[in-house]
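Reply to dn_fold:

You asked what the input looked like. This is it:
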Amino acid sequence: MTLFNLSRSGLILSIFSIIAGAVVRATGSGDGCGSSWPTCNGRVIPSLNSASEQIEFSHRAISGLLLIVTIAIFIKSFNNSVTGLQKKVINYLTFFVILEALIGAVIVLYEWVGMNSSIPRIAAVPLHLVNTFGLLAMYTIIFKLTQNPEIKISNLIDRKFKIITFLFILTGATGSIAALADVLFPSESFIAGIVEDFDSTSEILTRLRVLHPIVSTVLSFVLFNESKRLEDKFNLKTNQIKILVIIGVTLGVLNVFININIFLSVVHLLVADLLWITYIYTSMQKSYKKSLNHK
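and this is what came back:
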């Protein structure tokens, strides 16, 4: 397979892996394979008798395929046809994918799954999700570089990009904490949830979940402003970014009002991932135009 096809396959698998992980967390199926890793309940091919085992094993299978594709890309990077920048991005990509697997392994082996509400799990969950942002970014960048190898990263990482990346990471981290709180300490109703958010006697996770809508609102406004700038200055089409922002905010608000629905939560995360990928890809197009202008 070509580097283009491998990077495209890896990007798609990354999305499926993240969504499968969200389903595992939302359904409390993290202990479906027991505390064994990489086997599932001590078996390479498990019996899959329970729903939790099926869900957890599906996540592991997708993640395993992602690891195989990433290793294939890493091996491909030794070809003379691969540029120095592409090799550097592939090295970062490999790091994020391996770290993703290690974080997942530690979470399973130490049983930071199911209804576990320990401090290590509270720290591991946002770290796990933030790492996926790095993974998605590297896959998007290498995918774009296979199309336009002359792009310079120096044209990508400007002040606006750094601010938005930080806000994305903060939004992802707070979102994962909010999602974990909803699983471990569900509220009886929307009103009860609001009260619990500001109750000093509530669990720390419950009180922290209010940070997600605040940070995501800031990110939404910044993304709209950046979209307008990219349109005006670089003549780029940014309607996809705006549409994904609107869908993401709408799903988030609706999910809170109906007191958290697993399906909406998973779709909300999917939209967030697609928004991050779209933003990175659009920024790469900006970098491509800058590279052309400097010729």
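The chain has a mean pLDDT of 90.
Hope that clears it up.
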